[in-house]
Amino acid sequence: MSNALKRRKIAVLGSRSVGKSSLVKQFIENNFIDSYYPTIESTFAKSVVYKGVEYDCQIIDTAGQDEYSPINSQYAIGIHGYVLVYSITSRNSFNMIQVVYDKIVDFCGVTKIPCVIVGAKCDLTMARQVEPKHGMELAKHNDCAWIETSAKHDINVSKVFELCLQEIERNMAPNQTEPQTKGCVVM
Ligand SMILES: Nc1nc2c(ncn2[C@@H]2O[C@H](COP(=O)(O)OP(=O)(O)OP(=O)(O)O)[C@@H](O)[C@H]2O)c(=O)[nH]1
Asked: Could you tell me what reaction this enzyme catalyses (predicted)?
């Protein structure tokens, strides 16, 4: 298998302050910080072994979205898989997941995208506004994966990216190296 076959580009999206950067930071650097610094955009690289295969992953940590932010074409073109993050302490951020999902699907002119929906900050149980069953239902509705995580306590963080690779592989035709969203490449 050539290296080109194993390169995967993953975008992390969701509302502001839901814990996207903390999730990526914990995954890449194995650390967590309590203070909040809004992200503009950062890209990280990490190799991930999934089912015995090594994948060269490029992870794009995005600025938070809201219903009025247009989907940046950068997050729709050439992306293999998506990590859509809400906070279990914010119902609004959960409602944004379907909005962001629909925007990407619309922008790319596809019917579905490989993605994992993440309920972040699962250590904050006292402030919970979104029940696990609602997360699972949303994932089922969009035929994608779902998981709850805590970047603070390193719970299920690496699992997120394994699930994302799983969804990418599940949605890719054998021997396909380009994302299914390639149809929206703008020259
Ligand atoms: N308790 C707890 N707090 C968290 C967790 N993850 C993130 N936080 C806190 O939530 C705040 C926002 O986290 P960020 O990772 O910066 O959120 P973001 O989604 O990247 O924010 P934007 O860059 O604005 O889009 C920070 O104060 C973090 O310390 C978690 O798993 N548990």
From this structure: GTP + H2O = GDP + phosphate + H(+)
- The CATH number given to whatever domain includes residue 73 is 3.40.50.300
* Residue 181 resides in a domain: no
Please tell me the pTM assigned to this model. Answer: 0.92
Evaluate whether ipTM surpasses 0.95. yes
Q: What is the 3-state secondary structure (H, E, C) of the chain?
A: CCHHHHEEEEEEEECCCCCHHHHHHHHHHCCCCCCCCCCCEEEEEEEEEECCEEEEEEEEEECCCCCCCCCCHHHCCCCCEEEEEEECCCHHHHHHHHHHHHHHHHHHCCCCCCEEEEEECCCCHHHCCCCHHHHHHHHHHCCCEEEECECCCCECHHHHHHHHHHHHHHHCCCCCCCCHHHHHCCC
Which residue, by CA, sits nearest to atom 10 of ligand 1? 19
- The answer as to whether 163 is a domain residue is yes
Of all protein residues, the one whose alpha carbon is nearest to atom 30 of ligand 1 is 121
pLDDT in tens, 161-180: 999 999 999 988 666 666 66
Among the atoms of ligand 1, which is closest to the Cα of residue 62? 25
